[in-house]
Amino acid sequence: MGFAHNNVLHSNHFRKDWQRRVRTWFDQPGRKLRRRTARKTKAAALGVRPLTLLRPAVRAQTVRYNRKVREGRGFTLAELKEVGINRKEALGVGIVVDHRRRNLSEEGKKLNVERLKAYKAKLIVFPRNAKKPKKGDSTGADLEAETTRTHLPLPAPYAHEAPRKITDNERSFEAFKTLRVVRADARYAGVRKIRAAKKEEEEANKKK
Question: What is the pTM of this model?
Answer without folding.
Answer: 0.63
